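Please predict the structure of the following assembly.
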Amino acid sequence: MTGVLAPLPVLLPLLGAAAALLVGHHPRLQRTVSILVLTGVVSVSVTLLLIADTDGAAAVAVGDWPVPVAIVLVVDRLSALMLVVASTVGLGVLVFAVGQGTADGDENTPLSIFHPTFLVLIAGVSYAFLAGDLFNLYVGFEVLLTASYVLLTMGGSATRIRAGITYVVVSLLSSLLFLGSIALVYAATGTVNLAQLAGRLADLPDGTRLLLHGMLLIAFCIKAAVFPLSAWLPDSYPTAPAPVTAVFAGLLTKVGVYAIIRTQTLLFPGGALDDVLMCAALATMLIGILGAIAQTDIRRVLSFTLVSHIGYMIFGIALGSTAGLAGAIFYVVHHIAIQTTLFLVAGLIERRGGTMAVDRLGGLATASPLLAVLFFVPAMNLAGIPPFSGFVGKVGLLGAGVADGSWGAYVLVAGAVLTSLLTLVAMSRIWTRAFWRPAAQEPTADTAEAAAHDAGPDAGPPGADEPADDGAGAAGAPSGGATSTPLARRTGRRGAWARHAAVATAPAAGGDGRPSGADDDRAPSRRPMPVVMTAATAVMVALTVGLTVVAGPLYGLTTRAAEDLLDRTPYIGTVYGEREQP
Amino acid sequence: MTPTIVLPVVIGGLYAAGVYLLLDRSLTRVILGFVLLGNATNLLVLSASGPAALAPIFGFAEEEQMSDPLPQALVLTAIVITFGVTAFLLAMVQRSWQLVRQEVIEVDEEDRRVAAREGRDADDMDPDARDPDDLPTEDRPAGKGNTLHSDVDVEERLAQRYGDMPSDDVTLPPTHGGRP
């Protein structure tokens, strides 16, 4: 059974991508294809997880070659669980993107490359989770990274290219480092098969083993954005379109975390570099969250919390105990779901409020109570407020840290609690200012004249539908460059701000003499939230809350997965042992 | 079947030159650096198969005279990946040049903005304080009507010239406000 199913999470999206490319001129058909394919992947992954949890791990030798030679796909509890979460989140984001595309009327797109690329990304992620040898892990990484390059730079505007270059160069560097380590691993051991490596690496001299271990960890830590190697992430993620950022935030770094888990448990057990990882975890948590507090752009805040919370998972991995790993895996699941959801909500906020800059937002709670709920629930979940899964994951990790008992673990526990509090600060800052601050609090003295001015030279294309990706959200900056002095631009921006304020409190501000009728077509960036986007986000929020409901069984599952990982024999035995025939 | 000193020397030299070029702000050099690093890594994979030997084809060579075929298979895959990614990188740099007429990567705009806030509480932020136009000309972020290299708004000119051409730019429509 597994023999048939295991390749499907990779094959289905790849074939689906081909199909989606073929029907690129029929957007409706293309959307149907990609959603159907991802639904298929979700159901296959769930089946794989059920099988892996009841019958234990299973390995498939592709092409039926004898084992050390063959390309092996391994489905154990960890990889099956990751597959389920990744494909579910991918499906949610895809529906959101479809909603956004429909709402913005890209029906007549000449050739839509979003859907095929997205499916290739999912295929790469699945392949990385399933790969049973280092080189195929590398190929999986490359597949997902190449797809992510395309997604990140989609539209090819200046800001995205600028951010994309940083991202691409850093990713390439980490890939080369990974490839170099594979070469050295092969030179030292004569194999790249993970199960075979697990045995052979133990025979190497200590120095060689440490070198290989360090090189692999550095390569994976760049991908997972662990602190000294995390600076690329907040620079590159926020510029992409909302669904793209959401899926990146959820999945890409977690593939790195998955690879770190495999490295630390299967390849190099014994925790040679655990202390280093501990320090990295602490620095990642604290520096990441301090960065989040310094930011005023919602997506940047979220990117920094993403970096920060990677530290929790590294903390669990570095503990090296069953409890620590179980907590780390649970946290990975929780964090994939929560971070994706928050970025989707950020997309909605941007659509509703017209900007990402917290200073310019206001009054969203009255403007859209639904949006407020959609933001509040995952934000509190991220901060770890008790009923939610973030709390469960953090308590699990803290408990594992206390059980470890070393002073380093206690420092980490303190750091984790502090990070959680600071996350709450960062989240409540967005919450109070974007949602609860009266929309008209900012200066409104020159509202009327600014509005009048705006109607003049800088009217711009009213249906300005080009990808506008100015991270600053300088909405309404005049495009009539020839006449605009800095002063005029300034006034224009102030006017733009006032427009936001005025629309948000439309009934109240209606009487101040502004030509309010002009607002609807003058501010194309402030649009109502389309039903599909809102529904997709709501379902994702419900899923993150659902993680709390199933937290007990899920924690049981992650504990079993952690036991498998530390035991190592289930994995190695499956690869060598009885192979299931397709 | 004696090991050769040539490969390690070449690999080391390529790595050194590649890292040096990669650290430059000029994108052309970054690409060249990446190409060198990629080739160095490919050679490293190849050299993992040990000393040179006969081609691993049955009937052509005895088994003990064959070189290890696996690294050759790996390096083929790696070469293809490196090649494809280099092409993508080149396309990006070309696009960057097209848009902002400069190929030097600048300090991130938002980083500068946060750094420039200097002791002010984020809650007191005045939107007007965040004006890219107030920055010195050479500090202006890319794509903001940069007047350092050209007085013409290149993006706008391109938009006029190619405005009616089909493009896949619209696949993911705008999530922000108006154009800069």
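Strands of chain A lie at 58-62, 71-75. Residues 441-524 of chain A have pLDDT under 50 and may be disordered.
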